[in-house]
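Trying the structure run again after the queue cleared.
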Amino acid sequence: MPDIVKRGYVPSDSREFTEQIDKLRSAGEELYYLINRGYQIKPASTFVGNHYLLSERQRLALVRSISPKDRIEERLEKEINNLKDSVVYIDTFNTVITLEIAFSGSTLLYCMDGTIRDLAGLRGTYRIIDKTDFAVEAIRKILESEGVKEAYFLIDAPISNSGRLSSKIEDMFTDSNVNVVCEVINDVDKNLYTRENVITSDAIILDNCISWFNLTRRVIKEEIGEYPFVKIC
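Done. Tokens:
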């Protein structure tokens, strides 16, 4: 029996992302201004974070939420809304963990490019929890309803329990009309750079892939409904 875990829960989030949201949004406006004038996001976020005395978690939220206007436009141009008879490529840990956090009711960011991102960091470790089944089942429902023909779940080999997650996904898709291939590989990100029909919220992958589908946002809308996203800008 998997552990009952509230993935992504941090007690201080209610203060840092609710009580201090006005301060965070002011910082976000300034960061957005700077990066649209050529400043690199890392030094700019450090500068703004220091000025507003932001925590590390708040600074991470800024960096993950905010992108330059031209990058946002490029990503939105590549977003697709129809997967019928397609082959999709899934950034598995990115997608599963964000959905585990959603089903846990923990902090999620509604970002400027329309993606949903979390504040979790793998750091080489992952374990299956009670929300994992909910996440995989939700992915399955969307893929089936969209009429996807084949789905490649790309799973980072260096991360612990990658093999267990691969087996779980294969088991949960056993009787599905979507043909599933799980690949435990190195450099998942680079493998997705040249693909179309990519499922991820990773900004670098979105900037490099041919096209992408916003599955996480769709799952949350259909399976959870109204969600208390943190929206900075």
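The CA atoms of residues 85 and 149 lie 5 Å apart. Worth checking whether this holds up in the mutant runs.
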